[in-house]
C-alpha cells in the first residue's frame, strides 16, 4: 500500500503531472510535454469535464532522462506522491488486499503510433488482492478473469514470454477453470522468464513503466517511425491511470469510435464495440466485434452519454476525433481522444463540410491547409480507382470489410518478412496484423486479413498510410503457404489477387480497372458526381491564388 508522501522536491524537474494539473496553457497545446494521449486526457479532464478515470502522466522528458542515464533519481518518490493523490480521488488504496486500486500503464508519444508501444492493465493484482477484488465486486469470475488478463499481459509485455504460450485456448469462464489457468500462467512465466511475476504492486508498476519506456526503441516502433518519417529523439510519455473494467458484466465493454466515417468523411459514427472485454481486444483484430448499435441497444444510458461526449469533442477540437472508451456496469469512461486518421477522400470531404458545419466553422483557408495538393491528388486517385469494373473472367474470391479505400493488385505474401523482402507489388495476407508486422505492412501495396473489424490494427494503420485494406474476410483461412475459401478454392503464395479497400471485394488475378485513361471531361464528371468537395477546394484554391496575385500587384 502507498503511504501519503509530500511532493518530492525534484518533482518539477521530473515533470510528472496529474491529469487535472492546472497548466498555464491548455493541455491540448502541451503534446510536446505530455504526449498525445496525456494531452488528450488532461484536456478532457480539465477543460471539457468529460468522464475520464483519474491518473497522472510521466512527461516526455522522463523518457529522455531514462534513456540518458537509466531510472531517474527521485522518480520513485514522485510516483508515490501521485499514487497517494490518486488513492484519495478513488477512495481505494493501491495494494490493499481488501479493496485494491488497480492501474493501467500506457504509452503516449507526441505523434499517434497505433499499437507500436506497450500497455499493461490490471496492475496491482496478486493472490491476496484478487480475493479482495472478488469480495468487493461480488463477482469472483470477474476478479480472477482480470488476474488472468494481468498475468498474460505482464508476462508477455514486461517479462518477454512468448504470448502464444500464455493465451487461454478456450472460452470457458467457469471459476475453477480460470483459477487453474492462472496457476498455469504463473508456472509458465516463471519457467520461461527465469523468475516469477512480482507480487509487490509498486514493483509491478515500476516494471510496467520501464517496459513502456523501453518500447520506444522496439523494432516495431522504429519501423513505424521510419515509415512515417518521425523523429527518433522525442521519446514517449507514460500514463498511469485508475483501471475501469469493460469485462465486469453484460453491461460492460470496450470500444473505439470515430466521430465521422474515416473512409468517406460522411458525418456518421464509425467504429466497433466488444462487450465484456478489456483493453486492446477491440483493436487486436482477433475478436468478433459488434457494431456500435449494440451499445445503443444493450446499454442505452451509456450510448446517450457517448453521443453527447463525441459531439462535445468534435466541436472542441474542430476536427474528426478518434475516441477509445470503456463501459463499466453501464457507466461510460473515456480513455483517449485524438484527431482521427482518415483516407484521402474522407480528409477532403471533412475539410469542406466542416466549413459549413455551424458547430465547427472552419475557414476556407483552414480547409485548404488541411487538404494539401498531395492529399487532393490521392483523393482523386481513390475516386478513379473505385470507378473500375471487373470483367467476367475475374473470379471474386470473397467480400470482407473495406476499411481503407483503393483498388490494387499484387502477389500474395503470407508473412511480413516476405513482404518486406519481396520485389514488385505484393498483397500481405494474414489472419490479423499486429505491431510486429509493421515493416511488412509498410512494404505492401495492400493488406488483407481474415479477422478484425473497422478499428482493428490493420485498418487503423492502413488508413493512416492511405494503403488499400480489407479485413474480416472470414470465409478465408490462412494455412501454411496457402489461403483457402469456404468453397474449397485455393490461393497459393505468389498468386496474384486484387483487393478493393472501399467495397471489401477480393478477386483472383489483376482486376484493377481498364488502363484506358478517361477523358478530361469524363474524369471531371466522375469527380463531380463522387467527390464534389474536391472541385469546391479547387475553386477556393483558385480564389486564394487570385487574391494573392492581386495583393502582390
Number of strands: 23
**Beta-strand percentage?**
15-25%
How many whole angstroms does the radius of gyration measure? 24 Å
CATH topology name of the domain at 388-508, in short, is Glucose Oxidase, domain 1
The biggest beta sheet reads:
8 strands, mixed
- From the N-terminal CA to the C-terminal CA, the straight-line distance is 72 Å
Q: Which residues form runs of ≥5 with pLDDT under 50? A: 1-12
Give the CATH level 1 class of the domain at 388-508: Alpha Beta
Helix content: 40-55%
Supply the CATH superfamily name of the domain at 388-508. Phosphohistidine domain
| Count of DSSP H/I helices | 20
Description:
The chain is α+β, with helices and mostly antiparallel strands and 553 residues long. Helix content is 42%, strand content 19%. Among the domains are: 344-384 and 518-552; 388-508, Glucose Oxidase, domain 1. Strands 13-23-22-15-16-17-18-14 form an eight-stranded mixed beta sheet. Helix 5 packs antiparallel against helix 6 (140-158) and helix 14 packs across helix 20. It is globular and about 75 Å long.
List keywords for this structure.
alpha+beta; single chain; 553 residues; eight-stranded mixed β-sheet; Glucose Oxidase, domain 1; 23 strands; five-stranded antiparallel β-sheet; 20 helices
Summarize the structure in short.
This protein is of the alpha+beta class and 553 residues long.
Amino acid at each position: 500500500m502507498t503511504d501519503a508522501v509530500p511532493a518530492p522536491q525534484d518533482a518539477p524537474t521530473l515533470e510528472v503531472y496529474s491529469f487535472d494539473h492546472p497548466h498555464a496553457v491548455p493541455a491540448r497545446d502541451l503534446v510536446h510535454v505530455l504526449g498525445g494521449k496525456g494531452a488528450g486526457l488532461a484536456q478532457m479532464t480539465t477543460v471539457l469535464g468529460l468522464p475520464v478515470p483519474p491518473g497522472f502522466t510521466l512527461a516526455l522528458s522522463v523518457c529522455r532522462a531514462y534513456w540518458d542515464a537509466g531510472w531517474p533519481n527521485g522518480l520513485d518518490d514522485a510516483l508515490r506522491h501521485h499514487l497517494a493523490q490518486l488513492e484519495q480521488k478513488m477512495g481505494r488504496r493501491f495494494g490493499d488486499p481488501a479493496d485494491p486500486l488497480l492501474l493501467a500503464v500506457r504509452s503516449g508519444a507526441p505523434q499517434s503510433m497505433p499499437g507500436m508501444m506497450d500497455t499493461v492493465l490490471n496492475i496491482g493484482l496478486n493472490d491476496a488482492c484478487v480475493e479482495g477484488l472478488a469480495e468487493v465486486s461480488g463477482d469472483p469470475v470477474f476478479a480472477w478473469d482480470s488476474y488472468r488478463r494481468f498475468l498474460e499481459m505482464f508476462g508477455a509485455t514486461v517479462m518477454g514470454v512468448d504470448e502464444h504460450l500464455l493465451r487461454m485456448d478456450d472460452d470457458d469462464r467457469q471459476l475453477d477453470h480460470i483459477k487453474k489457468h492462472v496457476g498455469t500462467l504463473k508456472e509458465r512465466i516463471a519457467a520461461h522468464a527465469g523468475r516469477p511475476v512480482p507480487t509487490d504492486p509498486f514493483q509491478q508498476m515500476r516494471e510496467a513503466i520501464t517496459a513502456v519506456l523501453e518500447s520506444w526503441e522496439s523494432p516495431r516502433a522504429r519501423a513505424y517511425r521510419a515509415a512515417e518519417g518521425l523523429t527518433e529523439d522525442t521519446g514517449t510519455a507514460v500514463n498511469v491511470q485508475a483501471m475501469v473494467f469493460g469485462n465486469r458484466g453484460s453491461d460492460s465493454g470496450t470500444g473505439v469510435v470515430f466521430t465521422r466515417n474515416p473512409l468517406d468523411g460522411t458525418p456518421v459514427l464509425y467504429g466497433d464495440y466488444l462487450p465484456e472485454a478489456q483493453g486492446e481486444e477491440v483493436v487486436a483484430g482477433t475478436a468478433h466485434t459488434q457494431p456500435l448499435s449494440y451499445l445503443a441497444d444493450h446499454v442505452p444510458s451509456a450510448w446517450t452519454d457517448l453521443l453527447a461526449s463525441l459531439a462535445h469533442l468534435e466541436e472542441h477540437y474542430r476536427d474528426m476525433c478518434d475516441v477509445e472508451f470503456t463501459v463499466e456496469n453501464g457507466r461510460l469512461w473515456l480513455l483517449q481522444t485524438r484527431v482521427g486518421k482518415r483516407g484521402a477522400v474522407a480528409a477532403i470531404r471533412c475539410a469542406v463540410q466542416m466549413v459549413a458545419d455551424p458547430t465547427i466553422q472552419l475557414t476556407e483557408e483552414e480547409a485548404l491547409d488541411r487538404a494539401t495538393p498531395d492529399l487532393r491528388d490521392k483523393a482523386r486517385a481513390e475516386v478513379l480507382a473505385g470507378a473500375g469494373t471487373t470483367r467476367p473472367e475475374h473470379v471474386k474470391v470473397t467480400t470482407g470489410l473495406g476499411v481503407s479505400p483503393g483498388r490494387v493488385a499484387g502477389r500474395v505474401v503470407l508473412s511480413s518478412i516476405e513482404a518486406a523482402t519481396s520485389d514488385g507489388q505484393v498483397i500481405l495476407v494474414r489472419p490479423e496484423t499486429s505491431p510486429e508486422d509493421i515493416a511488412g505492412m509498410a512494404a505492401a501495396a495492400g493488406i488483407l486479413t481474415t479477422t478484425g473489424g473497422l478499428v482493428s490494427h490493420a485498418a487503423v494503420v492502413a488508413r493512416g498510410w492511405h494503403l488499400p485494406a480489407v479485413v474480416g474476410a472470414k470465409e478465408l483461412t490462412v494455412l501454411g503457404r496457402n489461403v483457402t475459401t469456404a468453397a474449397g478454392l485455393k490461393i497459393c503464395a505468389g498468386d496474384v489477387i486484387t483487393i478493393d479497400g472501399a467495397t471489401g471485394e477480393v478477386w483472383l488475378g489483376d482486376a484493377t480497372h481498364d488502363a484506358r485513361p478517361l477523358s478530361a471531361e469524363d474524369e471531371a464528371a466522375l469527380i463531380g458526381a463522387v467527390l464534389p468537395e474536391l472541385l469546391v477546394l479547387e475553386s477556393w484554391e483558385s480564389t486564394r491564388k487570385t487574391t494573392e496575385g492581386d495583393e502582390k500587384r
